[in-house]
Amino acid sequence: MLAVVLSLLVFVGVTWAQYSPDWTSLDSRPLPSWYDDAKVGIFIHWGVFSVPAFGSEWFWWHWQGQKPPDQKCVSFMKQNYPPGFSYPEFAPDFHAQSFDPEKWADLFQASGAKYVVLTAKHHEGFTNWGSAHSWNWNSVDTGPHRDLVGDLGEAVRRRSLHYGLYNSLYEWFHPLYLKDKQNGFKTQEFVMNKLLPELRDMILRYRPEVIWSDGDWEAPDTYWNSTGFLAWLYNESPVKDTVVTNDRWGAGCACKHGGYYNCRDKYTPGQLPKHKWEKCTSVDTLSWGYRRNMEISELMDAPSIIEDLVSTVALGGNYLLNVGPTPYGTIPAVFQERLRGVGAWLKVNGEAIYASKPWRVQHENSTATVWYTAKDNVVFAVITGKSVSIDLQLLAPRPSATTKVTLLGSPLPLNWFPSDPSGITVVLPKQYFIGHPQAFTLKLEGFQ
Fold first, then answer.
1. Judging by DSSP bridges, how do beta strands 357-365 and 115-121 pair with one another?
2. Where are the domains of the chain?
3. How far apart are CA 246 and CA 254, in angstroms?
4. CA 152/CA 112 separation, integer angstroms
5. Could you give the subunit structure recorded for this chain (predicted)?
6. Is residue 31 within 8 Å of 105, Cβ to Cβ?
């Protein structure tokens, strides 16, 4: 009888929710496999904050939110703008007139990234699409007069890259949020009338495969109604089978609840975590958004980025690298150079990165700095740093009768011999002993 009832319910369109709105259930959802296979993503912080382009994307808060205000921001405004100038007056100068989503997507593809995450809305509340819930404070009503989220998404997907969106839960100066905050977050006017309707509309319209949540820390997840939203996202939304989410869903949730863990900006665990994680970091070490006053010494160079990427993947993480475009819609040439440098390295060494898994040993320092990854029955040893001997000793691998060592990018096998008391010693080609690239990869077959 029960089977008959269930069949009738399915026939008439009644379905059972797989995930209930509680963390025990939501945290049991398997992470869609595409995300762990992708390994490398590009993060983009772009908004009205790109116009003042001073200090960081937190300019508005540092200027008029925090007490006391940042005097550097105050001085910047006095020197460059008339008295009484308000932050919203920056929006008309967010023209994005040179924004070419096809060029951006070509660059991201050339970087070797497999997914792209754009800021749909940062803490300033400005949406990079025509949100009906952000009237006159969005990229269609003012500034670019263009759907930036939609235009980039179409270009990215044409290159078979996954597309995700960053969304800040809170907004520094939204009156409904400030009212809820004053009420000790016992009311939810902002959440019910602004945040959730806007999030739902964004997902239905753009179908992002990553929801990169942020701005959660001032209130508990119960205020944000995070479990209810995620239950809808995982059970009913058009991306329920492919979407991945991070862990920023309320005070105390980071590194505890969600799809994958960010834990904190530029998080580096130091050892293999038990849960899938992602390191988000920025080419500009002082800001996520574009800065007009950035110096070359404040930027990560390509070798540093590659080593950071390799260590992250060896420890089971994904690597999300950020760039900040200008208000004109261009990506600064120095950022382009960094991304293309990473892409050139991945073109040769990507076999050790994409769809790889952590090996039984993730890292060692012998005659070089070595990071290990694995795929099927193959082990990869990525050698980073500048101090490398021509006789490279690897302590962890255990050779067998079928052992073979090759250098990615070269078809010829390398000579090797067992080391005492364990491991192997690989004889490197001379060009890798003198003036070798910052990182290169040995492919180890027939090892244990």
1. unpaired
2. 19-352, 357-447
3. 8
4. 17
5. Homotetramer.
6. no
- Which residues, in sequence order, are CB contacts of 51 under 8 Å at separation 6+? 90, 91, 93, 94, 327
- Note the pLDDT tens digit of each residue in 151-189: 999 999 999 999 999 999 999 999 999 999 999 999 999
Distance CA 338, CA 332 (A): 10
Q: Do domains 19-352 and 357-447 have the same CATH topology?
A: no
What string of DSSP letters covers 342-404?
Answer: HHHHHHHHGGGTTT-EEEEEEEEESSSEEEEEEETTEEEEEEESS---SEEEESS--EEEEEE
d(C-alpha 178, C-alpha 228), whole Å: 22
C-alpha span between 300 and 309 (Å, rounded): 12
What token pair was written down for 72?
């550097």
Specify the pTM.
0.94
For the domain 357-447, what is the CATH superfamily, name and number? Golgi alpha-mannosidase II (2.60.40.1180)
CATH code of 19-352, in short, is 3.20.20.80
In the predicted model, residues of the chain with pLDDT beneath 70 are 1-16, 386-387, 431-437
